[in-house]
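Lab notebook, bench 4. We co-purified these components, and the gel suggests they stay together. Before we commit to crystallization screens, I want a quick structural picture of the whole thing.
Request: model the full complex, all chains together.
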Amino acid sequence: GAGVSQSPSNKVTEKGKDVELRCDPISGHTALYWYRQSLGQGLEFLIYFQGNSAPDKSGLPSDRFSAERTGGSVSTLTIQRTQQEDSAVYLCASSLSLPDTQYFGPGTRLTVL
Amino acid sequence: QKEVEQNSGPLSVPEGAIASLNCTYSDRVSQSFFWYRQYSGKSPELIMSIYSNGDKEDGRFTAQLNKASQYVSLLIRDSQPSDSATYLCAVNKDSNYQLIWGAGTKLIIKP
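Here is the predicted assembly.
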């Protein structure tokens, strides 16, 4: 079956612009996660969804970051007024339930100039 | 103390030898443990999960869990250059929580 998909695969933007990153989880997976990974670094947890609700938003780096999930499926991570330090690979993962095996998408590489 | 700790490496192992990767965790109530492999520029992919004390074998990989000592390890037998990657350990905090991730150990298999 189809895995987790993310779009775009690459995004180059100018400092101060807003960006939207999209994640399509595996069909039937109720849990969805967003991570950030800077070059050579480990996974930084951002937020997770159980269904459409986000019980834990503590990982979001600032109020410029927000995420939503609708219909228990697609999720969008929005970064407003991007900064150069936002440059990283943004990874999305989904799992059948909590805290099941997480399956990762290919990531979106964000570059803020 | 980090919740999940791994030696960052790099760990260099000759081809054909056994690679041993270790992970310690701080929360005694953790129940589920995962090893992921991440190749450079790629996303993490699951290698093994383990839930009970003892060993779990899958091909050349063996996961070992010791809840009393709060560590989980991954052994790779007959190491191949293609095993060169960063290995991530992940532990669940409780049954209704998402995974806590270690920073990963970089493994290099030398031909």
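Chain B touches chain A at residues 32, 34, 42-46, 49, 88, 90, 92-93, 95-99, 101-104 (CB under 8 Å). Worth comparing against the SEC data before the next meeting. Chain B is about 0% helix and 55% strand.
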